[in-house]
């Protein structure tokens, strides 16, 4: 049995779907059954929060391998609780969704520090582990969808600094390999897309696919920070702004061959991702 946590989220949902397609027995942990991936994959479901030890016990029971996805940088206890429950249940293998910034010594924002601590929690668990370290997800551009539909303009910062963004489906495909195959223990995988793109280039791909012109308006760093602070608690908004600023020094542009090596096919391109999510932008 394989447990997928964060199963209502981006990578967990894709992982659940790919595991079901591959005929693997899977269990999904989510806190709201109404947020099951659509279409619903063939899998068991356990409902519960990472703060609920009983739910974690039920979720981990009989599990051989687990995908660990946490999302709250103010709660490192979530990774600790999941690892504890995995050990107590006799699970053998953990696959942890981390982030590529952890490998950049210059990255010291709240989110990256939290991911480093979570990696250490997993590494010191005594269980087999694999660390997935993706660059920014292509799906983050869904955050532009409402503004594109309403105004035909993307407002962002910085707009001319490249990032080797990755399709979360590739992250999930690597997760499935690490959960189900031998040979991934102790590995930390940098996961990027096939080329680095700036915001302006991503918007050009979207405009081409939509068949209509889209404008790009560059915000100032301060404007980005204020926009983030309207949506997120201030420490998180600050961390996200720091992450955006790191694009400027070219540190996010490096394309890594790991996705292609592991999957035996090229990493998925942004235009492929766009073609499958176009309805969100129309
Ligand atoms: N986005 C990026 O560009 C990017 C890049 C690199 C790494 N990452 C890392 O990827 C991870 C997020 O993955 P994602 O984008 O696939 O997830 P996501 O779409 O943000 O969803 C988060 C998942 O975690 C669940 N969750 C959050 N808190 C929970 C709790 N207390 N108890 C139970 N479930 C809880 C959510 O459940 P609900 O549906 O109930 O909220 C949801 O299923 C983060 O660690 C992030 O740092 C993201």
TrEMBL record:
This is NAD(P)H-binding protein. Residues 6-182 form the NAD(P)-binding domain. Gene3D superfamilies: NAD(P)-binding Rossmann-like Domain, UDP-galactose 4-epimerase, domain 1. It comes from the Bacteria. PANTHER family: PRESTALK A DIFFERENTIATION PROTEIN A (PTHR43162:SF1), PTHR43162. Pfam families: NAD_binding_10.
């Amino acid at each position: 049995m394989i447990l997928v946590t964060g199963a209502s989220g981006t990578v967990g949902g894709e992982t659940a779907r790919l595991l079901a397609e591959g005929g693997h027995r899977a269990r999904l942990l989510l806190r709201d059954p109404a947020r099951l991936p659509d279409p619903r994959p063939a899998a068991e479901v356990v409902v519960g929060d990472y703060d609920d030890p009983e739910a974690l016990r039920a979720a981990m029971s009989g599990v051989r391998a687990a995908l660990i996805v946490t999302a709250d940088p103010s709660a490192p206890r979530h990774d600790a609780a999941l690892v504890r429950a995995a050990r107590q249940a006799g699970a053998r293998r953990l696959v942890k969704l981390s982030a590529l910034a952890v490998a950049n010594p210059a990255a010291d924002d709240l989110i990256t520090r939290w991911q480093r601590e979570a990696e250490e929690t997993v590494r010191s668990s005594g269980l087999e582990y694999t660390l997935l370290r993706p660059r920014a997800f292509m799906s983050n551009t869904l955050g532009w969808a409402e503004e594109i539909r309403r105004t035909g303009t993307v407002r962002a910062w910085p707009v001319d600094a490249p990032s080797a963004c990755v399709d979360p489906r590739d992250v999930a495909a690597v997760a499935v390999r690490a959960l189900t195959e031998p040979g991934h223990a102790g590995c930390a995988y940098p996961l990027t897309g096939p080329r680095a793109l700036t915001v302006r280039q991503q918007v050009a791909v979207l405009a081409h696919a939509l068949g209509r012109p889209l404008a790009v308006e560059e915000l100032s760093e301060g404007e980005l920070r204020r926009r983030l602070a309207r949506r997120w608690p201030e420490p998180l908004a600050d961390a996200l702004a720091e992450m955006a600023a790191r694009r400027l020094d070219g540190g996010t542009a490096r394309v890594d061959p790991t996705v292609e090596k592991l999957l035996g096919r090229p990493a998925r391109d942004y235009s492929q991702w766009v073609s499958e999510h176009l309805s969100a932008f129309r």
